[in-house]
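DOMAIN: structural biology
WANTED: fold as tokens
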Amino acid sequence: MTSTSDAKDLLNELANIRKDISVLRTNLNELNDKKEALFDEKEKHSKKIISIIHDIKSLKRERDEYTNKVKSFKEERKHLNDSIKTSSEDLNKFLSEKDAIQDKKQIKGNPSLIKKKIEEMQFKIETEGMSFENEKKMMLKINELKKELDGSREFMEVSDKIRVSRNNIRDSRRKANFIHKSVQDNAKNSQERHEKIITLSKEIDELKKNEKDAFTKFVEAKEEFNKVNDALKEKLVEMNRINEELKKHKIKTKEEIKDKEIKTLAEKSKQVDEKIKGRKKLTTEDLLVYQKTMSNQPEEIIEPEEDNTDSE
């Protein structure tokens, strides 16, 4: 004979378990959201770290390029400064030679002006019609100037060397100034990249710390999630056990009634569909079935099944 008391106890226990399951599922969903949010936070930090590392690599390449340019320009600047030093030494030597020649030859005039004067007088003889006496006087003057010029040949040669040395020094200094400016500009660019790398490296350190914290919290949330999930599984097993016990007492559970309703509704819905296709008139019950099918929310009824067994 069926024990009503036992069945009632099982139903009460089932109700309590369902409440526990509902609470556990709510907690599980909250923990899952928390776990996923922490994982997303950890991933956000990881992606940011990867992005910054990419930027640092790019900055390092730029910094190294500027540093290599600085090195190259410094070598070129040193070469120019050495050239300026050599040319300056040569210039001082040529100036001393010029002074010595000028004292030795007792050169009073400027040889370049003397040469120019000779050329002007020769051109005048060739182009102007003048008397024989005037031409003779001019030729005597030209010969005197040539003798004076011959005496200053060494002086002119050393003067040419002085001019070349001064030109070399001027050109080298101009180049050296330009190179020096290039050294400063490239050194500044290199330093800016280096400082940016340091700043980004510190940012990575902070991001790694945040990434680690987020991952630690994620692991903790995952462990808590697994504990609640295991507790939920145990409750579900317990619920299934009670459902099996209720079957022995011929008691329909909420789940069984719902499954039966769904199957019945599906059969009736199929019949209504056939009526619609056949353009047949629908009854009020047919309309209710159709409405319930559209909402897909069958009513839930929990009631004990009638006991048709004979009492012992």
Notes: Confidence is low (pLDDT under 50) at residues 297-312. The CA atoms of residues 2 and 248 lie 9 Å apart. Residues 116-151 form one domain.
